[in-house]
């Protein structure tokens, strides 16, 4: 009697015969990388070009935002640190978002970039969106969760990391 269990042990990648599922699996993180990269680049540029945001006080300023969320945040001490220099904190967040977005989009130091994105999202969740009810209305937690697969897997396809890894393998092969 025949059962529906595959008994072959070879990898589908050895003979070069890949089906659409194998290809989809290899490129599965690419849409997430593009979305997060573009979104964080946009967020960083938006902050840098918004004259109201980069101020200690006033409508739409980073200083007023921090003072507004201070008492409702999970870690008020973190907000207090930001309030020591709100403009500097605003620039740090903006340039951090740009660096994370660019690194993620081009796939350079992608795990480090994803970790940076996760840390930015975590800090925003614990401060700015902590009081959002119900919790799933706040997007910072969702961004934090979206970064985790990229922290774990990096950017294995269509990335500078992959190109550099391939180049190192070629050089290692040439020395053998």
Provide key terms for this protein.
176 residues, mainly alpha, 64% helix, 0% strand
In a few lines, what is going on in this structure?
With 176 residues, this protein is an all-alpha fold.
Written description of the protein model:
This protein has 176 residues and is mainly alpha-helical. Helices cover 64% and strands 0% of the residues. It has 8 helices and no strands.
Mind sketching the topology for me?
Blueprint (H helix, E strand, L loop, with lengths): L19 H7 L3 H20 L12 H8 L6 H9 L1 H21 L3 H18 L11 H15 L6 H15 L2
Radius of gyration: 22 Å
Overall, the morphology is elongated
Uncertain ranges: none
Instruction: Please give the alpha-carbon distance between the first and last residues.
Output: 50 Å
Strand content bin: under 5%
Mean pLDDT: 89
Q: How much helicity do the residues have?
A: 55-70%
Give the number of DSSP strands: 0
Total helical segments: 8
The succession of helices and strands, N to C, reads HHHHHHHH
Q: Indicate the structural class.
A: mainly alpha
């Amino acid at each position: 009697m025949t059962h529906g269990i595959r008994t072959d042990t070879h990898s589908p990648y050895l003979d070069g015969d890949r089906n659409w599922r194998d290809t989809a699996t290899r490129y599965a993180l690419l849409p997430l990388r593009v979305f997060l990269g573009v979104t964080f680049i946009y967020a960083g540029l938006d902050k840098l070009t918004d004259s109201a945001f980069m101020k200690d006080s006033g409508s739409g300023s980073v200083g007023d935002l921090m003072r507004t969320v201070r008492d409702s945040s999970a870690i008020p001490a973190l907000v207090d640190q930001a309030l020591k220099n709100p403009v500097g904190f605003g620039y740090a967040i903006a340039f951090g978002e740009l660096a994370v977005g660019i690194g993620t989009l081009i796939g350079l130091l992608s795990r480090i970039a994803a970790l940076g994105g996760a840390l930015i999202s975590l800090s925003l969740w614990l401060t700015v969106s902590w009081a959002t009810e119900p919790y799933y209305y706040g997007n910072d937690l969702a961004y934090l969760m979206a970064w985790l697969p990229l922290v774990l897997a990096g950017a294995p396809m269509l990335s500078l990391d992959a190109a550099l890894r391939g180049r190192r393998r070629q050089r290692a092969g040439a020395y053998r």
